[in-house]
Amino acid sequence: MSVIGEFTVPAESFALADALRSAPEMRVEADRHATHSPREVLPFLWATGGDFEAFRRELDASPSVETVSVAERTDGERMYRLTWAKPFRDLIHDMIDHHAAIIEAAASGEQWSLRLRFAEEEMVSAFQEHFEETGRRFEVRSLWRPSGPRQREFGLTAEQYEALAAAVREGYFQVPREATATDLGDRLDISANAASQRVRRGSAALVRSALLIDEDDGGGADG
C-alpha cells in the first residue's frame, strides 16, 4: 500500500527562494495537480497576501522559471502560469527517480510544504538520504497510509483542512451564517481574504477528490 508524507524543504533547496523572500507575507499554493512528468508538474501557482509587483519581478528573474504569466487575477489573489527552467525540472526528475510523486505543494516565507506519495514506506528513507547527500533537506512532518481507495486523503493541504474544520466549527456554512470570513481569519491568524480563499479551494479539492474521482483521473480503470 502506498504511503503519503508531509515534508518541509527550504525554498533555497526547492524553488522561488528570491521571489518568496521579496514578498514575505505571500502565501503560494500549487493548483492541485499530481503528475510524474517534470514538464507538467506545478504549472499553476496561486498567490495571496503579499506584494504582487515585487513577487512578479522576482519570478521573472528566477533561475527556476523560463516563462511566467498571470492566468487569473482578483484584488487579493493571482494565479500564475509557469514554465519551469531546466534546474527545477532536473530536481523533479531526481525526485521521480527516487519514487516521489508530488500531490500538493505550498510555500510561505522561505519554506515549502510538500505532500508526496511513495509506493512503499521504505522509499521514504532512501529519498531523504539521497537528498541529504545532495545538500537538500526534505524533513518529514508526518507519514500515513491512505485509509481507503483513491485519494481518501481528499487532496487537502493541512491549511485547507484547518480552514474547513474551523469553518464548520464556527458556523461559517450555517444558514444564516454564524461566522464571517473575518471571524475565520481571526481564528486562523490570517487575513479574511486568505481564509475565504482557503475555504473555497479546500471545498473544491474536497469535491474533486470525494465526488468527482472519475473525472479527475480521466475515468481510470481502477474503478
Automatic annotation (TrEMBL):
Pfam families: BAT (PF15915), HTH_10 (PF04967). Keywords: Transcription, Transcription regulation. Transmembrane segments: none annotated. It comes from the Archaea. Residues 156-202 form the HTH bat-type domain. InterPro entries: BAT_GAF/HTH-assoc (IPR031803), HTH_bacterioopsin (IPR007050). Residues 6-142 form the Bacterioopsin transcriptional activator GAF and HTH associated domain. PANTHER family: DIMETHYL SULFOXIDE REDUCTASE TRANSCRIPTIONAL ACTIVATOR. This is Bacterio-opsin activator domain-containing protein.
